[in-house]
């Protein structure tokens, strides 16, 4: 059953728009809908600090513009203008509902009026702009087609999984969403540059450069291989002129081992309580992602690959024994495209296992670090990263709501009161810990091993090659799995001791590195216990 919202049927006029604007300006607590009785489908919805013009027809809903705030991408300041556009949008919902968003964007496009000013496109002009591209692919379809083509085994320009992830991340940026369902042939250079600048501002120069690179790649690929379906002919290759004029600063952060350990201990505190200022009275850190954070710090593997470790690729080291384990990653999950084998010292294996065992989906068959939400999905690097992000108070105080979000209501139809966060605290700074990211730990590893006199150890720990053709399915029977694991442990142990994997060097490096972390951890925990006792 759908949610009930306070609804007022009326003839929307200047009085109603004035009332709606005041409600939005004051931050209306809930959702109030004004339904226009003279033009079926037009609504003026007030929710918190927005007053949006909405058109509904059957199962389709389209936000055609905003009365408030005054400065927005789709301004419709009065009821007369809204009524005119609503009628046109409704005709599009009847004939071409899948193209409603593209049509609305066109109606808000400004062109010169011949009198020194500007005006919006008319209904006829917007339809004319739609028609030549009615059967061509959207930008989203172009991205997916390129990925699909280049993931095939016989592709002449194959994509590594890491590159596919990078592409999806680039095109999932919030500022790109208004372009994704638009015909790719209608996307302009200016629109991409605006998105690029927004990514530079909100994420960073490196991400902005990656967005530009992948936009150029997608459009170039379409022009070369799918010009008919995509509508991208290459006659005006504007994407080749795209540039990201940002100089990347060399990353030099090297968190001290003491700061890394302080952060881990701080995260442990919130396994059973919420972070300060949170509205929900539940733990803010899950054991599953915390074990992932420990794993990344101890192994110094790239975070995405580290979290994609399969259960059957973390095995006992039969040759070294005494609690040692070996972790193995297939080539397709490693950035360098090479299989990686890594010995895990007993102390490191033990602390990770102790935290993993507390996870909601501990013991999942496929992933060594399963998501707390779904055992069939691995914990993501972003989930692990958000531990640090939230400890530093970098997450948004008010989380943005997705389009179409409607608040929960009481039985009487009135909105439930939404609890507001009381604030954010930078708990890392309060503990005198400078901000650090998962990738920064790799530089600390290099420094520690250099100081220990085994400078080649870091390179050995971070990547080397071995051939592998494993393709395990989690649908095996228990007996089949037991037999597989028996053979798998022996195979990984033997492979890990091959010369190409530098087993002695890796083991020595890993023992030095993990002991440095765990010795510091024991020291800080002991100091904390003494402080409490005192």
From TrEMBL:
Keywords attached to this entry: DNA integration
SUPFAM superfamilies assigned: DNA breaking-rejoining enzymes (SSF56349)
Keyword Magnesium: no
Family: Belongs to the 'phage' integrase family.
Protein name: Integrase DNA-binding domain-containing protein
């Amino acid at each position: 059953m759908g949610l009930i919202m306070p609804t007022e049927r009326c003839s929307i006029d200047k009085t109603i728009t004035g009332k709606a604007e005041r409600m939005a300006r004051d931050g209306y607590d809930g959702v109030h809908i004004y339904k226009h009785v003279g033009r079926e489908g037009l609504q003026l919805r007030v929710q918190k600090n927005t007053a949006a013009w909405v058109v509904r027809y059957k199962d389709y809903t389209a936000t055609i513009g905003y009365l408030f705030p005054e400065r927005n991408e789709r301004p419709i300041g009065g009821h007369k203008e809204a009524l005119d556009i609503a009628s046109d949008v409704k005709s599009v919902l009847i004939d071409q509902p899948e193209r409603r968003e593209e049509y609305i964007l066109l109606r808000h496009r400004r062109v010169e009026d011949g009198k020194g000013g500007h005006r919006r496109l008319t209904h006829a002009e917007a339809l004319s702009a739609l028609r030549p591209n009615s059967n061509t692919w959207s930008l989203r379809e172009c991205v997916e087609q390129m990925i699909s083509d280049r993931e095939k085994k016989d592709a002449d320009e194959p994509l590594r999984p890491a590159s596919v992830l990078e592409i999806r991340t680039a095109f999932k940026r919030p500022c790109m969403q208004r372009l994704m369902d638009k015909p790719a042939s209608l996307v302009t250079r200016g629109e991409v540059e605006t998105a690029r600048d927004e990514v530079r501002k909100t994420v960073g120069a490196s991400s902005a450069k990656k967005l530009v690179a992948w936009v150029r790649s997608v459009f170039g690929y379409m022009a070369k291989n799918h010009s008919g379906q995509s509508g991208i002919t290459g006659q005006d290759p504007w994407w080749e002129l795209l540039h990201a004029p940002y100089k990347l600063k060399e990353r030099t952060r090297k968190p001290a081992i003491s700061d890394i350990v302080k952060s881990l201990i701080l995260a442990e505190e919130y396994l059973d309580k919420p972070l300060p200022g949170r509205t929900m009275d539940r733990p803010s850190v899950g054991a599953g992602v915390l074990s992932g954070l420990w794993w990344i710090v101890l192994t110094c593997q790239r975070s995405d690959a580290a979290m994609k470790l399969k259960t059957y690729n973390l095995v006992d080291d039969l040759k070294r024994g005494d609690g040692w384990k070996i972790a193995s990653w297939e080539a397709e999950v490693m950035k360098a495209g090479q299989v990686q084998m890594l010995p895990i010292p007993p102390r490191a294996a033990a602390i990770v296992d102790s935290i993993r065992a507390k996870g909601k989906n501990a013991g999942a068959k496929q992933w060594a670090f399963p998501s707390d939400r779904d055992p069939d999905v691995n914990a993501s690097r972003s989930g692990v990263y958000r531990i640090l992000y939230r400890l530093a108070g970098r997450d948004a105080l008010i989380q943005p709501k997705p389009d179409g979000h409607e608040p929960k209501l009481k039985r009487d139809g009135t909105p439930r009161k939404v609890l507001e966060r009381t604030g954010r605290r930078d708990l890392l700074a309060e503990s005198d810990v400078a901000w650090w990211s998962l990738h920064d730990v790799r530089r600390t590893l290099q420094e520690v091993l250099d100081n220990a006199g085994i400078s080649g150890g870091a390179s050995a720990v971070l990547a080397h090659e071995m051939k592998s053709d494993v393709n395990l399915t989690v649908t095996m029977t228990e007996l089949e799995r037991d037999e597989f694991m028996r053979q798998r442990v022996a195979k990984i142990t033997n492979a890990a001791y091959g010369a190409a994997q530098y087993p002695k060097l890796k083991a020595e490096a890993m023992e030095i590195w993990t002991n440095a972390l765990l010795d510091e951890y024991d020291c800080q925990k002991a100091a904390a216990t003494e402080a409490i006792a005192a």
